Description:
Elements: E1 3-8, H1 15-28, E2 33-37, H2 44-48, E3 57-58, E4 65-69, H3 72-84, H4 93-102, H5 108-119, E5 128-132, H6 136-158, E6 162-163, E7 166-167, H7 168-186, E8 191-198, H8 201-216, E9 223-229, H9 238-257, E10 262-267, H10 276-288
Parallel strand pairs: 1-5, 1-8, 2-4, 2-5, 8-9, 9-10
Antiparallel strand pairs: 3-4, 6-7
Amino acid sequence: MTKFILFSGKGGVGKTSMASTTAVYNAELGKKTLIVTTDPAANLSDVFEQEIGHRITKIDGLENLYAMEIDPDQATAEYKERSLAPMRDLFDEDLLKVAEEQLSGPCTEEMAAFDKFIDFMDGADYDVVIFDTAPTGHTIRLLELPVDWSKHIEESSKGSGQTCMGPVALIEDSKKKYDDAIAKLRNTEITNFTFVMQAEETSLQETVRASKGLNELGIKTSQVIINGLIPEAEAVVPFFKKKHERQLVTVEKAEELFKNLSIKKMELFDTELKGVDMFRKCATFLFGGEQNE
């Protein structure tokens, strides 16, 4: 059965680094792994140092690792074409134009991005699928969508037959797909939801709020990674010593607030975290419990 691991958190906390490290770790274990980013400001290409883009791309130097950056514009165009294709042999140009206009509503782009996102939850091509998501607010909205749409489609089918994404007849099949995706996201046996945070009060508070928001959707937080800790051995200069002490206070608060969850701590590296070799090294610390030297 495919396992899904979602990474979220405040902007700039190191989600992509931790998601990429986890992807490399799973691939090295021999699991066929796909890492997908839903962040419009995606940088998987930068951290893996090769062109990726809106297509599944094999990562150089690893047998089992693939990656994709979802492009919102391309996802929207593909979604509209997939919806209109069955109509092309049945309707004339005027009716097709009407249907196309109805699929140009304000929520079509949101729906298309999520539709692409859950495409990867529908198959069995990979052992592990890792989602590197956009900053927290965007991710919570993304995960609210299937719940909202499922209700919207059901209510519209009993009323006007028209939704903000177009006629119910065009998207009714999607309801089952969204319901299945919601069930998988809520199933802790197959879905792991990890928040990445820095050892700072603002990052901690955002993680607490987001975790509560997720819980209201019926999705449980599985793990918290506290990233960017200053190694104790480096906390000898007053500036770093003071910062290190503040970090420890936040870590203690996080451990109390998330005492029922797995908490991993990740120290800062003295070099940029990118490239397969660096992610291998980071995985040793993240999954092996070693401390940086």
